[in-house]
Amino acid sequence: MKTGRKLFNMLQMAAEAHARWEIETSTNILRSRKKLLILLIMCLPVLAFLGLSWAAGDVLGGKKAYAPAFYSTSIFLITIFIGLCAGLITGCIGAGGGFIITPALMSAGIKGILAVGTDLFHIFAKAIMGTAVHRKLGNVSVKLAVAFVAGSFAGVVVGGGINRAIYEFNPVMSDLFISLVYVFLLGFLGIYAMTDFLRLQRAGREHRTLAPDKEKVAKPPTPATTGLAQKLQSVKMPPLITFDEDIVPGGNRISGVFVAICGAVVGLVAAIMGVGGGFLTFPIFVYILGVSSFTTVGTDILQIIFTAGFAAISQYAIYGFIFYTLALGMLLGSLLGIQVGALTTKVVKGIYIRGFYATAILAGFINRLFALPGKLNTMEYISISKGLARTLDFIGLLVFFLIIGVFAIWVCAMFFKNLSKLKGEAESAKLVEEVA
User: Fold this and answer.
1) What is the pLDDT of residues 149-196, one digit of tens each?
2) Global pTM value
3) Partners of 241 in the beta sheet?
4) DSSP string for residues in 303-358
5) Domain boundaries, the chain
6) Which of 38, 75, 51 lies closest to 325, judged by CA?
7) Contact 295/224 with Cβ under 8 angstroms?
8) What residues are paired with 234 via a beta bridge?
9) Residue 85: pLDDT above 90?
């Protein structure tokens, strides 16, 4: 139980660091007229294609023409909604919004492998449009990042290869495999997130959110001292990488081989699940490699950009497993959602948002869990009626979008209800910044 709690805390810290990067990235894009113009130009062909689809009925991606999955105007609009909800969760809670994207896309009718590839491309597109590793994210160890990314590239090739091989063997098995991965991950995260929420509620105190204005004063960074980390650092296998020089006199050293192996694990998981892999990097860096949390944060964000980009392009884009229009929809939705979510944290108690977050993660777990019987029945692993399979799948779909939709409506309502107050705070902050 203690080990599970520690792992959950590490995963949470990683998601929080990634959320801060997401908020900063979306802010950078929205503040740049050139980047907004690029988005507008990207939207024009999409709108033209949607008009053609509506007029022609059956085009490439339609029900009768060949395509990996059915595509329609409604699915594009749903992806904007999915991006918006993921952005609201990321902005409000400061963690975990990306975990719902792949399950949500699969629920919207997108095949698992396409959902994975599209999500990875969405992460990469957002990164190249608006990111810079900000000094607030922490120290960046370039040597650690290079070794880690080298390993992650190898893991990405293996993970992407596994997804494609399963899909080519049986598309239903591909969806089953990806759903199972998310059932285990979201089940673990959801149970601990709900336990954490109930514990905080019983304690009767408000849980902090990670909006920039509510961050706690950072404690002095300390190096990790786990037994495993000390053992690995004692192995003098070349090439040796020095890190944490600003924290430990002379810095710590570890073999680049161990760093690359850990990177391979993260790349493997990222390519299979369609995420940047940041939720795994944090516990691996701190517990296994012995890197301080201060250095881990900045290095983690840097590796996400390269890992997601390489996975999206080399394993999915060139094989046709990315819906660019859907990635654009998610990008548009998330840019708006993150900003609204981050502002809403100023007027909403964190404990309520934390409760919604735990519920949303569990909803994603239920969604994928209830989709399993139908896929197992199709592959003849179990025998149930098609009506029961469709009913279970519909229940999972209904629970998921109902909870996510209620969360989105609630956050937006709180945002517009307190809009005048938020405007006043923004003007005050701008005035203080100008004076400073």
Assistant:
1) 999 999 999 999 999 999 999 988 999 999 998 898 888 878 877 887
2) 0.75
3) 254
4) HHHHHHHHIIIIIIGGGT---HHHHHHHHHHHHHHHHHHHHHTTTS-HHHHHHHHH
5) 2-435
6) 75
7) no
8) none
9) no
